[in-house]
Amino acid sequence: MKKIITLAGILLIGLTVKAQDSSQGLKGAWFATSQFSYQQTKTADVKNTSLSVLPIVGTFVTPSVAVGAGIGYINIKADSNAGTAANTNLIVIEPLARKYWNVAGSLYFFGQLALPVITGKEKESDLKVTQYGLSLSGGFDYFITKNFSVEFSYDLANFTSTTLDPKSGEKTTVTNFGLAHVANVESFYNGALGGSNPNLTSPLSFGFKFLF
After folding, report:
1. H or E segment at 175?
2. How far from chain centre, in Å, is Cα 70?
3. Residues 6 or more apart from 87 whose CB is under 8 A from it?
């Protein structure tokens, strides 16, 4: 009788621990992902390119809430047979927070709030570029395995303030705000930075995420 009670007690403890582990969800898990985009346009001998790479690392602070940050690089360039007309190198720092909701099975919807800060310089004209932003996006995350998922997101609202400070002359500040749109490029810094429609922030994102 004592052995049966002891065995039942061990089984009960095991079920309780398992239930507690299940309720923790992804809390404590870390994730790594990266956003990458490349665009090129060519007219005659003029080639404009825009490249951005943004690795992101974060952790789940609750079973459904994650915080993280990305540190990346943007290059915007305009070349022709006559030489380089514009070559902009920018550093991106982007803290973010996400909230996940389960849709069905391995499919999750998430909302993300990010605060990108972008800074750098256009080398040819010595033009300093600084941008502060606030972005609210929504997306879907599908877990192929417990350690690997595919995600897609789209900007729902986006605010940016971009300052262009030339070596000589007055600086210019461009302010943009949009709701559920594909971000357009302000013509003023489209010409100043060159490149292929040089959006400093991208409204669409697709990538892979690793959890560990």
Report:
1. strand 172-179
2. 7
3. 75, 76, 77, 78, 122, 123, 124, 194
Evaluate whether 68 touches 59 at the Cβ level (below 8 Å): yes
pLDDT by 10s per residue, the chain, length 212:
434 333 333 333 333 333 334 456 789 999 998 877 777 888 888 888 888 888 999 999 999 999 999 999 988 888 888 888 888 899 999 999 999 999 999 999 999 999 999 999 988 888 898 989 898 999 999 999 989 999 888 888 888 888 889 888 888 888 888 776 544 444 455 566 665 445 555 566 778 889 98
Q: Pull the structure tokens for residue 108.
A: 């999750």
Structure tokens at 58: 């974060």
Query: CB under 8 Å to 22, separation ≥6 — which residues?
Result: none
Give the CB-side neighbour count of residue 22, counting CA atoms within 13 A: 6
Burial 39-55, CB ≥16 within 10 A → b, else e: beeeeeeeebbbbbebe
CB 129 within 8 A of CB 193: yes
